[in-house]
Structure formats: structure tokens, C-alpha cells
Design brief:
The complex is a heterodimer of chains A (about 525) and B (about 300). Chain A is an alpha+beta fold. Chain A has 13 helices and 18 strands. Chain A is about 55% helix and about 20% strand. The longest helix of chain A has about 60 residues. In chain A, the strands form four sheets. A six-stranded mixed sheet of chain A has the order 11-13-14-12-17-18, with helices on both faces. A five-stranded antiparallel sheet of chain A has the order 2-1-5-4-3. Chain A has a five-stranded antiparallel sheet with strand order 7-6-10-9-8. Chain A is rod-shaped and about 185 Å long. Chain B is an alpha/beta fold. In chain B, helix 9 packs across helix 10. Chain B is elongated. The chains are: A alpha+beta (about 525), B alpha/beta (about 300). Chains A and B meet through helix 2 and helix 3 of A and strand 6 of B.
């Protein structure tokens, strides 16, 4: 979970903002595209109608060109001339036409003599009638006319036929804008075609049930039972009495395009959102997460820990920062270890005697209250032994201070050798030592006697001679009720016992209460 | 050194241009790669074109001629609708070169002025009957000679006048070689005398096609034409006289043309031998008999 104000939080925020922005763009663009598609659809209907008109004009030009091919064929002219001038059977002419022009892409062909005699295409009575009705067999000019039938409009290109300046008749080629043509247009444009005659739909590409009987568009729109169409008249000059051709584009088609547009936008938006999320995740993974780890490490350092940071394989800025930080933490760790070592040394120097290695008097004052409190809490005993070398001044005087120091060192070793691990040995000063032991006075006495015997058992060895020494030991036990001032009290008692031991000839152990009793 | 290289490279360019021009010229002479290969084996390639009549004759004895004279015979223009005729034959003959020999077929005896002008040698081959064709549907099978001429002149215009149905007569004419003697001039002596309302065509194939198209049609053509079943035509006799070699020889059949081969300049012994064989050989005589031809050269 991203904490506000953190970089991770900002990243997540930015990603959310981007996603919201993307969604907004999606909604706006969809709205805009909807308007665009609807507007474009209206323009498109007009454009398609114009294109259709252009296509029909092109086809009419092609048809006229084919008619001219017939007109300009010298062989066909000869055959026609023979048929017309000699009145021969037209079979030869028809066969010649088929041989020469059978490949032409036309629907019907007719050749009439100037008198209207059908020489080619005699089976097309309606076509002959239309040509004769317009006096085209006698005409001297090319023409393009349109005919109606119940299946659409038929373009008819006519050319006058001549042979050596003699007018022979007319040739007419037709191209039907019929069902197949309409279906082709329908497939290519996606719209519908309607032939309208006298306000009624004669034929259309609409299914039989969908085609309206009456054609009454309102504001270039045609409402049918189940659909609405944008309609435009195809501007072809077919002449009066000939069907009008209308182009219609279904509202459903427009909606379909709209849905397609929406799907495209949606697809792009999804791709964009996924891309943003991926980029965000990559940012979090590659930037925010390492920064978070660095922050955790810094926190640990701030708390006094100096963790070992694994080497990173990253070669970017974060990797460089981690490496530098790792080096810094390692340096701090080394410094801390040095400080700890020096601190240890200082602590040892503050609590021990430099000559004998025993604890010093300062440490006694620090330690005794703790030991005493512990003894009181756990109902244990705590006894004090004050140990003093007999006639040590004479050792110094006689063997020198170096020998004296050596005697003190060996003597302290004997003391620590006789004590348990849990006992504490202090040098109070000069040749006077103190032992704190968690036993009662009897146990302390046994320890004291053990020390006395050990010391007296053999002389201490210096470099030049052996020096026989003895010790006197005063023993006392701390008493409940002596409170926090118990140290001075028990030291006093042990010191008086020592004094008594010295007075009684040295090399002896005296327990305070025994010495007190003997004194009494 | 640089000068030599420059000269060599320039000559190489000229050589390439020359070779390209040569290949182009040979291509126009219809000398094919196959014929070049034949030449490399010592075989002379002889190319002939022109009136289809000679083509028919040569094609039928081609293998014997090639074998006997060591030549490779290329023939151009069989049943063409493009009007290969005497003019094409003369053009082909004039392309004759040593090693690239050519000759032409012609259907009429050229006059001396044209022979001199074109520097040609005419080798007469045979006299060929001009047959009168009518549509198969036409019941007429015989027309007297003068009525044939009258029909072509337009004086008779309906088949009923010659015993046929009451139908107008349609003339299909190939008015070729108008400036040369012979051929259709044995029927009507000049183009102007033919009736005007006729169908003019450029090849003999079109004559056959035209007569086949019109049930009322009539035309003329050499007897060597291979009449295909797809054409609805038939040959009529002239006052009971059939177009045969015998009738040509005795003068009772009046319509004919004289077929010849023309050459230009000196010809190789192989080509000369081939022409001689064509004029006098037994194989040719067999073919001539088949087509009712009257050989023009005597027995050697």
C-alpha cells in the first residue's frame, strides 16, 4: 500500500490520472467520432450518388465507343450494304456481327435498316420499337437514350451506319443497369439502389418484403417499416418518363460503422491502458521498489544497525546509489567496531588494576551494590575477604619495588586461582586485596584458609630469588539490614578482622564475629 | 596501351551494334534460330512466301525436296487472312542473300517492265483453274461462262436468271494484282467492269468466308484452296465444263491463273535444283494432278 507523499504514491497517482485521462479521451473521441460518422454518412450518400452517376456516364461512354467500333468496321459496312441494298437474307450479316463483335460486353444489339427493317437483333421487338419511335434508323447522329423495363434502366448507344456515304440504317448497343449491375453496386458501396417510376419503386436491391410500394422521401430520408435510410437521387439525365435511380444508405449500416469505430477506439484504449499499467509497474519495479529498499536500509542504519547489503547487479543510477550506500554502511560498521573495541579497552582500564589484572577499588564501588541487591533479592549470602600480604614493606625494601611488583602479580594469580569463577577479586591498594564471594561466612572462611595455605605453601619466585610470603585475611559477611551502605559496613568489619589477624601474629584468618568474640 | 584499349572498346561497341542489326535484319527475314542451327550443319535454309497456291504444292512435297537438295524449307502464309499475295512473294524474293536464300510465289505472269524493275527471274510452275464458288444452299450447280461474266459485271443480279431461287446475287471479290495480267482478268478484264455493289476482300480465305456467309454469294478462287467442311461453299461448272487440267489444256475452261516462283539474283544449286524439281519432278506432277493443275514447263 502506497503511503501518501511517497514516491510510490505519486507514481500510482500519476498512473491513475493517466488512466482517467485515457478514459476521458475515449469518451470524448467516441462522442466526436459518432458525430463525425453521422455527418460523414450524409456526405457519403451524396458522394456515392455522384460516383454512381459518374460510373453510369463512363459506361455510357464505353458503350458509345463500342457502337462506333461497329460503325467503323469496313467489313460489317460491306455486309450491311449488301443486305440493305440487295435485300439479301440478314443471316450473313448476323453471323458477321457475331464473329466480329460477339465478344463485346453488351446486353443487346440491334441493327436496323433505314426503313426500320431489323437485320441484327430482330428478336428485340421493344428495342426496335424504341429506335423507330425516335426516328433513329433515319438519323444521322450518334445518340444515347435510356429505356425502361421492370428490371431497371437500359442504356442504348446508337450510331448511324453508312457505306460510301450512303446511309444504311442504325446500329444500337445496349447495357442494362439491371439486377446484376445493381447487386454489384450494392456490394461495392454497401448501399441500396431503387428505380422509381411515377413515385413508385419499380425495382430495387431491397428484399421483396422491405421494398416500399410508394417512394416518398422526406428531407432526403426514407422511413420504412423497420429501417431508416438516407437517400439521394443519382443525377443521370435519363429523360422524361424514364425511371429515376435513387441511392439509399441504411441507418443500420451507419450504426454498424459507428460500432466498428467504437470498437477500434475501445481496442486502442485498452491497449493504451495496458501500456500505461505496464509502464507504471515497470516504474514501480525498477525505481520505486529499489528506493523503498534503500529507505528501509537507511532506517536500519538510523536505528544503529549496519546490515550487510548484498551486492547489486544493477548498472543504473539506483544501482550506483545502492553501491555507494553499501560502502557507506560498511564504513560505518567498521567505525562502530573500532569504537566498541576502544570502548571495551577503556572500560577494562577503568575497572581493573594495571599491575595485577584484578578489579580496582572503583569497580568495587560500582559492583558491590548490584551484587548486594542481587543477593538480597535471591536470598543469597555475600561475604567479603580482605587479604593483605604480611610484611610487604620489607619485601619492597629488601628486594626492590620491581620484585615487589612481581610478588604482587604472582600473589594475585594465586588469589584468582583459589577463587571460583563467580567470585570477584579486587586490589584495594598496595598489598591489600578484597574478594567478594556469594557464600556465607563459613564458606568465606574456607576460601580464606585455602588462600592462606596456598600462599604460605611455597615462596614466590622472582628473577633473582624466591621470596616467602604469608597473608592475613579478615572475613566478614554482609548482613541484611545494612542497606545500600552495606559495603562500608562490611568492609569495616572485615578490616577489623584483618587487623586482629595482624595483631595476632599474621599468617592467619580471622572471621569478624570470631575476632569480636575473642576480643570480648 | 590506353589507346589500344580505347580502340578495342570502340570496336567492341561497333561489333555489338552490327551483330544486333544483323540479328534484327535476319529476324525480319524470318530467319529463325532453328534455321541458323541447320546452317551450321551445312544445310541451306530457303524461305518462301507469297501466293498460297505454291505453298500448298511445296508443302506436300517438302520432305522430298529437303532430302534431295539438302535444304531446309521455310514457308510463310498458309491460308492467311492478311492477304499474302504476289507482292509479298516479290518482296520475299528480293531478300535473297547468299546463305539466306529466299524466293516468292506469284499468281500471275509479270510483265517485262516489272521483271526488269525488280530484277527478278520468273520460274513458271503451273496453270491453275479459277473455280467459281457458290453457297452450298444454292441449288445452282452450273452457270454458262458468259452468264458468269454477266453476273460479275452486274448484268445478271438475281439467281432466278440462272435457274436459281429468287434471290439477289452477292458478289465476293478479291481484286488483287489489278495491274498484272491474268488471274481474275480471265473473267472480267478490269476492276471497273465488276459490279459496284459487291463485297471486296483482301484474301482468298475471305472469299471463301464471304460466299459461305451469304446464301446468295458467289466468288472465284484458285483450285488449290483446301476447302474446309466448315465453309458452306461449292464449285459450279461452267456450261457443263469442269475446272480440270484437261479442260484447261484443251481451252474449254476459260478461267485460270498462272502460278510461278520468282527469284532475285543468283541462286544456289540447291535452290535451282529445288525449282527444277518443282517444275519437272514426278512428285510435283502427282500433286498437280490432284489439284487439276496444268504444269507449264515441259518434261525435261
Amino acid at each position: 500500500m502506497a503511503v501518501p507523499g511517497t514516491y510510490r504514491f505519486r507514481l500510482v497517482t500519476y498512473i491513475i490520472v493517466l488512466l482517467v485521462f485515457l478514459a476521458g479521451v475515449l469518451v470524448l473521441s467516441y462522442g466526436a467520432s459518432s458525430q463525425l460518422v453521422l455527418r460523414e454518412a450524409e456526405n457519403n450518400v451524396g458522394r456515392l450518388a455522384e460516383q454512381l452517376a459518374g460510373q453510369i456516364r463512363t459506361e455510357s461512354v464505353d458503350l458509345a465507343e463500342r457502337a462506333r467500333m461497329v460503325r467503323d468496321s469496313a467489313r460489317f459496312q460491306e455486309y450491311l450494304f449488301i443486305a440493305v441494298s440487295l435485300g439479301t437474307d440478314a443471316t450473313a450479316l448476323r453471323e458477321q456481327f457475331q464473329r466480329q463483335f460477339g465478344w463485346l460486353q453488351i446486353d443487346r444489339a440491334a441493327v436496323l435498316s433505314g426503313a426500320g427493317r431489323p437485320l441484327v437483333g430482330g428478336e428485340y421487338g421493344d428495342l426496335r420499337e424504341a429506335l423507330v419511335e425516335r426516328n433513329l434508323p433515319q438519323g444521322s447522329k450518334e445518340s444515347l437514350i435510356y429505356l425502361n423495363d421492370d428490371f431497371g434502366i437500359e442504356m442504348v448507344a446508337t450510331v448511324p451506319m453508312r457505306y460510301r456515304s450512303q446511309h444504311l440504317g442504325v446500329a444500337a448497343l445496349t447495357k442494362r443497369l439491371g439486377t446484376s449491375w445493381m447487386e454489384t453496386v450494392r456490394k461495392s458501396t454497401g448501399g441500396e439502389l431503387l428505380f422509381v417510376r411515377d413515385g413508385k419503386v419499380v425495382s430495387s436491391t431491397l428484399s421483396a418484403g422491405a421494398a416500399p410500394a410508394a417512394f416518398i422521401p422526406v428531407n432526403d430520408r426514407l422511413e420504412l417499416d423497420q429501417s431508416s435510410y438516407l437517400v439521394r437521387r443519382v443525377p443521370v439525365n435519363t429523360g422524361a418518363g424514364v425511371d429515376q435511380l435513387w441511392f439509399a444508405l441504411s441507418q443500420e449500416q451507419i450504426t454498424l460503422r459507428l460500432v466498428e469505430q467504437r470498437n477500434i477506439i475501445l481496442g486502442l484504449a485498452v491497449i493504451g491502458a495496458v501500456a500505461i499499467l505496464l509502464v507504471g509497474l515497470l516504474l514501480l519495479r525498477n525505481f520505486s521498489a529499489p528506493v523503498g529498499r534503500l529507505v528501509s536500509l537507511m532506517q536500519a542504519v538510523a536505528e544503529g544497525h549496519f546490515p550487510v547489503i548484498p551486492a547489486t547487479v544493477r548498472r543504473d543510477e539506483i544501482g550506483y546509489l545502492t553501491e555507494r550506500f553499501s560502502e557507506m554502511v560498511a564504513s560505518l560498521r567498521d567505525k562502530q567496531a573500532e569504537i566498541d573495541r576502544i570502548h571495551g579497552q577503556l572500560a577494562q582500564q577503568a575497572t581493573t588494576d594495571a599491575l595485577t589484572g584484578c578489579y580496582n577499588r572503583r569497580y568495587l564501588y560500582d559492583l558491590f551494590p548490584k551484587l548486594w541487591s542481587e543477593a538480597l533479592r535471591s536470598n543469597k549470602d555475600l561475604s567479603v575477604l580482605i587479604v593483605d600480604l604480611d610484611h610487604f614493606k620489607q619485601v619492597n625494601d629488601r628486594y626492590g619495588h620491581l620484585a615487589g611488583d612481581e610478588v604482587l602479580r604472582q600473589f594475585s594469580q594465586i588469589l584468582m586461582g583459589c577463587c571460583r569463577v563467580s567470585d570477584f577479586v579486587f586490589r584495594l591498594g598496595g598489598e591489600e586485596f578484597l574478594i567478594l564471594t556469594s557464600v556465607d561466612v563459613e564458606g568465606a572462611k574456607v576460601l580464606a584458609e585455602k588462600i592462606r595455605v596456598a600462599v604460605a605453601a611455597e615462596p614466590l619466585h622472582t628473577a633473582e630469588q624466591d621470596i616467602p610470603v604469608t597473608v592475613s585475611i579478615g572475613v566478614a559477611q554482609a548482613q541484611v539490614g545494612e542497606g545500600r551502605e552495606g559495603l562500608s559496613i562490611v568492609l569495616g568489619r572485615a578490616d577489623r578482622a584483618l587487623y586482629d589477624a595482624k595483631q595476632r601474629g599474621r599468617n592467619r584468618v580471622l572471621v569478624h564475629h570470631e575476632a569480636q568474640r575473642q576480643r570480648a | 596501351m590506353r589507346l589500344i584499349v580505347t580502340l578495342m572498346s570502340r570496336h567492341a561497341v561497333f561489333l555489338c551494334v552490327f551483330l544486333a542489326a544483323s540479328v534484327s535484319a535476319h529476324g525480319s527475314d524470318s530467319i529463325t534460330l532453328a534455321s541458323l542451327k541447320e546452317e551450321s550443319r551445312g544445310v541451306t535454309t530457303v524461305t518462301g512466301a507469297g501466293e498460297h497456291f505454291t505453298w500448298v504444292l511445296l508443302d506436300q512435297i517438302r520432305s522430298g525436296l529437303e532430302r534431295d537438295h539438302g535444304i531446309k524449307l521455310d514457308l510463310i502464309g498458309r491460308e492467311s487472312m492478311l492477304g499474302h499475295g504476289c507482292t509479298q512473294g516479290i518482296k520475299m524474293a528480293r531478300q535473297n542473300r547468299p546463305g539466306r536464300e529466299t524466293f516468292g510465289f506469284i499468281c500471275c505472269p509479270l510483265d517485262k517492265a516489272e521483271v526488269d524493275k525488280e530484277q527478278l527471274t520468273v520460274h513458271p510452275i503451273a496453270r491453275e483453274p479459277l473455280v467459281i464458288l457458290v453457297n452450298k444452299a444454292n441449288p445452282v450447280s452450273d452457270i454458262p461462262v458468259e452468264k458468269v461474266r454477266a453476273i460479275f459485271r452486274g448484268e445478271i443480279r438475281n439467281w432466278k436468271e440462272v435457274g436459281g431461287p429468287d434471290q439477289p446475287i452477292v458478289i465476293v471479290l478479291r481484286p488483287h494484282c489489278a495491274q498484272r495480267p491474268g488471274h481474275w482478268k480471265t473473267i472480267v478484264s478490269s476492276v471497273d467492269q465488276f459490279r459496284k455493289d459487291r463485297i471486296d476482300v483482301k484474301s482468298e480465305a475471305e472469299v471463301v468466308q464471304g460466299v459461305s456467309d451469304f446464301p446468295e454469294g458467289m466468288g472465284n478462287i484458285g483450285s488449290t484452296w483446301n476447302f474446309d467442311e466448315k465453309y458452306k461453299v461449292k464449285v459450279v461448272t461452267l456450261g457443263g465444263i469442269a475446272p480440270t487440267a484437261a479442260n484447261l489444256a484443251n481451252g474449254s475452261y476459260p478461267f485460270y491463273q498462272e502460278q510461278s516462283i520468282v527469284t532475285h539474283g543468283p541462286v544456289s544449286p540447291a535452290l535451282a535444283g529445288m525449282i527444277r524439281d518443282l517444275q519437272h519432278g514426278a512428285a510435283f506432277r502427282e500433286v498437280a494432278k490432284k489439284y487439276e493443275l496444268l504444269p507449264l514447263a515441259g518434261t525435261p
